[in-house]
Amino acid sequence: MSEVVELGRFQTRTEAELTRLFLASAGIETVLFDAEMNSYGWGPMMPVRLMILDDDLEDARTLLADDSRAGGRPDRG
């Protein structure tokens, strides 16, 4: 059975959403944890966590690393 694990932490919800949407475009589903707390001014103390099924973790890390090398988002994993 798959477990939900943390892929990365982000200082802003916008940054986390962009990464979530990038992964969704590749068919990898993720969910944000603590996004609401971060939006209410807890930013540095409560980063937004991007969560993913452990079965998809390596594929997501590979996609993010490839995107980072191409000038996209930095690897957060």
Present the secondary structure layout:
Layout: E1 4-10, H1 13-25, E2 30-33, H2 35-42, E3 48-53, H3 57-69
Antiparallel strand pairs: 1-3, 2-3
Give an overview of the whole structure.
This protein has helices at 13-25, 35-42, 57-69; strands at 4-10, 30-33, 48-53. It is built from three helices and three strands; from the N terminus they run E-H-E-H-E-H. Helices cover 44% and strands 22% of the residues. The protein has a three-stranded antiparallel sheet. The protein is globular, with a radius of gyration of 12 Å.
Beta-strand percentage? 15-25%
Report the average pLDDT across residues.
85
> What share of the residues lie within helices?
40-55%
**What is the helix/strand order?**
EHEHEH
Low-confidence stretches: none
- What CATH calls the topology is Alpha-Beta Plaits
The shape, in one word, is globular
CATH architecture: 2-Layer Sandwich
Oligomer state of the chains in this structure? single chain
Number of helices: 3
What is the total number of structural domains?
1
Strand order of the largest sheet: 1-3-2
